[in-house]
What does this fold into?
Amino acid sequence: MRRLTYAEAGVDIHQENRSIEAMKALLKSRRKGFGAPMTEIGHYAGLLDMGSFALAMTTDGVGSKVLIANAISKWDTVGIDCIAMNVNDLYAIGAEPIAFVDYLAVEKVDPERAAQIAVGLARGAEISNMTIVGGETASLPEIIRGFDLAGTAIGVVDKDKVVTGAKIQEGDVLVGVPSSGLHSNGYTLARRIIAESKYTYFDTMPGGDKSIGEELLTPTRIYPEIVELVKRCDVHGLAHITGSGLLKLRRISKLGFEITDPLEPQPVFRFLQEQGGVDEAEMYRTFNMGMGFVVVLEESEAKEACRIMGPGSRVVGSIVKEGLKAGSLTF
It folds into this structure.
């Protein structure tokens, strides 16, 4: 069986990173004084100095998951994904979301689809305790096929509660927090796998009661528990595990990460791996593999962190001098 990779499916993470670096090299203008940036480009969210507190901003979209929604005409959860991909990045710097604007680009206006999308947006805003203050709907028939959904979120954080990863030290533990499934990353590979398999989105997921399409549309988990976590614990680092999987950990520290007891991936991951012949390392480089968030703190605080983050959260590893390992895998 031919082994599929994310790059072969059309998404080259390394090329994306080079593209980002090329843009960053030219984005040099920086405001001074009130509203000056507190972080460099490249963290989960950007921080602006507002005097006694920091304003956090981030932007993201649902990605090609919307193509599955189109395929089975089910759009009521992609709004949750749009909210989640943004607010989870705010949480990853210790900020609490307060407001959101969405951007819906369409090939052709469809009021029924728009209403379903709004159902998800409303639910995501409710879960994350923030307000959708506006947005934009653009009809772009020459550019868009179907629709694209993205948004921008802002949050607030006390300056002394900002979590950048700078406090991470050897010996800290890694608390893994479960995902709800694929979330909103790796879908170019997931769709390619299904397209080349004997299955369709309408077939029942093996071992389950949902269709494969419904399983793949499981909404991204939102992690509002982080707000309480940063108030009660001395959190050293936070990582939202999205595109590029475990490689995201390198965003928060140059120290090493050793995962000795990874969370168990949901069955959908092993189903995709089997159908696509995807090797284990590629799975962990592409998908969250059952772990949507990682909290880094001292071992003495791990029990309280697990309690706050909820069922399934547990210590999965520790901070070491260098490297990135998960079980027998080295990245």
